[in-house]
């Protein structure tokens, strides 16, 4: 099914395609106003201390701007005021607060993997909503989505803002509310991964759940020493205050405990690009039986310096994760995953109605179910190669399933 569907659309596709999907027939559909973030707090020292902590934290992650861009976007996509994008001097971004990076500047671009070809064809690639006005940040700066006091107040824990919750990492029913449908390869040495990820705007049932489609580059055991590099798109009302798909990155070197964060919300990822805002909304999105849009992502390890670089779209370098952030990933990855993840908080006592991907099962096919296409990994010789020994796994296949094909 996947094969015939995709060959009809674009004969250049020769790699695996995965469809992610969702079922909503037995779960109530909730309507939630995610922008209603104003909260009434009782007066007292506790709230005063909390606000002081929040404002101090904002000073760390919102850096001085040489230019500010207000995203004015149609109300059919974002609120009329949109995101605020600050153009921050490259060497003043949060990464350079790290003791091992203080006083340094971003590195020059590395050698790209052999066999890297810009994607073309009938699939249209997404762009970021904030840049539709044609305004960009100047050379020597990076665009940063400004974090607000309200963003932090929405978090279930102020101290955990910008981080995934600690949870068991096993891909099974013990995953503590996190449910997955993934394709994966393991058992060899991997030095990167590449995929084009279909972008949708799945419904998320409440503020403390999310839905995402991403790549995971993984090393270590699935215990406290887990190292991951992650990139894709996500709908996260808690993190962003709305239900629109946004480009995101993540990293951890201790299984989501004390290290790592989303985007640029801590010292870690070093951004080198002045046109891509990590955490900004993606537009347009795919529609059922309508236009299909995707983003192409490549993560690979620079053979010379050992850092892990990220490319977005057709050859646009976003930046890199310094190798010293990691333990096992300093050397190589031992697993790569492509797929979807949602949070099932069971607020009403039953399974969430939060969707994954398009909100439709894999069997619905192209134009209805969400896909990953052109999946590859980077080998020891810094060459992009097709996947081998691919396996698929869905935690709860009667809610979220996945299929592979070529």
Give a structural overview.
The chain is mainly beta and 406 residues long. The chain has four helices and 22 strands. It has helices at 2-9, 45-61, 149-154, 237-240; strands at 18-20, 67-70, 84-89, 124-125, 127-128, 141-145, 178-190, 192-198, 211-219, 227-235, 246-252, 261-262, 270-271, 282-283, 293-301, 308-312, 316-321, 333-343, 370-378, 384-386, 391-394, 402-403. The strands form four sheets. Strands 1, 4, 8, 13, 15, 16, 17, 19, 20 and 22 form a ten-stranded mixed sheet that branches. A hairpin with a 6-residue loop joins β15 and β16. The protein starts with a helix and ends with a strand. Residues 1-42, 74-81 and 168-174 have low confidence and may be disordered.
Keywords for this entry:
Neprosin_propep, globular, Neprosin, ten-stranded mixed beta sheet, seven-stranded antiparallel beta sheet, Neprosin PEP catalytic domain-containing protein, mainly beta, Glutamic_endopeptidase, about 400 residues, disordered N terminus
Describe the structure concisely.
The protein is mostly beta strands and 406 residues long. It has helices at 2-9, 45-61, 149-154, 237-240; strands spanning 18-20, 67-70, 84-89, 124-125, 127-128, 141-145, 178-190, 192-198, 211-219, 227-235, 246-252, 261-262, 270-271, 282-283, 293-301, 308-312, 316-321, 333-343, 370-378, 384-386, 391-394, 402-403. It is built from four helices and 22 strands.
End-to-end CA span: 9 Å
- Main β-sheet description: 10 strands, mixed
Proportion of residues in β-strands: 25-35%
Q: What is the H/E order?
A: HEHEEEEEHEEEEHEEEEEEEEEEEE
Shape: globular
Number of helices: 4
What class do helices, strands and sheet pairing give? mainly beta
The strand count comes to 22
Amount of helix: under 10%
| Computed Rg | 20 Å
Low-confidence stretches: 1-42, 74-81, 168-174
Whole-number mean pLDDT? 84
InterPro entries: Glutamic_endopeptidase, Neprosin, Neprosin_propep
Organism: Sesamum angolense
Protein name: Neprosin PEP catalytic domain-containing protein
Domain Neprosin PEP catalytic: 172-406
């Amino acid at each position: 099914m996947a094969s015939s569907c995709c060959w009809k659309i674009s004969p250049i596709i020769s790699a695996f395609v995965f469809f992610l999907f969702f079922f909503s027939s037995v779960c109530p559909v909730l309507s939630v106003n995610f922008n209603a973030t104003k909260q009434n707090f009782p007066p007292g020292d506790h709230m005063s201390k909390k606000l002081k902590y929040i404002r101090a934290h904002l000073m760390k992650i919102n850096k001085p701007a040489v230019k500010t861009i207000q995203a004015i976007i149609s109300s059919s996509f974002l609120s009329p005021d949109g995101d605020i994008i600050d153009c921050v001097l490259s060497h003043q971004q949060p990464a350079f607060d790290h003791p091992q990076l203080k006083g340094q500047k971003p590195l020059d671009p590395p050698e790209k993997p052999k066999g890297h070809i810009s994607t073309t064809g009938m699939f249209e690639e997404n762009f970021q909503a904030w840049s539709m006005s044609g305004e960009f940040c100047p050379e020597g700066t990076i665009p940063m989505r400004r974090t607000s006091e309200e963003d932090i107040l929405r978090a279930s824990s102020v101290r955990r803002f910008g981080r995934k919750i600690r949870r068991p990492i096993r891909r099974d029913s013990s995953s503590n509310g996190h449910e997955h449908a993934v394709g994966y390869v393991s058992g060899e040495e991997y030095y990167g991964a590449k995929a084009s990820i279909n972008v949708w705007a799945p419904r998320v049932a409440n503020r403390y759940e999310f839905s995402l489609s991403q790549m995971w580059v993984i090393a270590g055991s699935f215990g406290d020493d887990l190292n991951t590099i992650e990139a894709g798109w996500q709908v996260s009302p808690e993190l962003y205050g709305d239900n629109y798909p946004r480009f995101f990155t993540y990293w951890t070197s201790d299984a989501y405990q004390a290290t790592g964060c989303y985007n640029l919300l801590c010292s870690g990822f070093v951004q080198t690009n002045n046109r891509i805002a990590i955490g900004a909304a993606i537009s347009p999105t795919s529609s059922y039986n309508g236009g299909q849009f995707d983003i192409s992502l490549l993560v690979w390890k620079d053979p010379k310096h050992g850092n892990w670089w990220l490319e977005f779209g057709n050859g646009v370098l976003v930046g890199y994760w310094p190798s010293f952030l990691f333990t096992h990933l300093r050397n190589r990855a031992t697993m790569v995953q492509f797929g979807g993840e949602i949070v099932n908080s069971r607020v009403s006592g039953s399974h969430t109605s939060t969707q994954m991907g398009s909100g439709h099962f894999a069997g619905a096919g192209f134009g209805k179910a969400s896909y990953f296409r052109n999946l590859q990994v980077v080998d020891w010789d810094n060459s992009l190669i097709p996947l081998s020994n691919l396996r698929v796994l869905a935690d709860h296949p009667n809610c979220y399933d996945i299929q592979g094909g070529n």
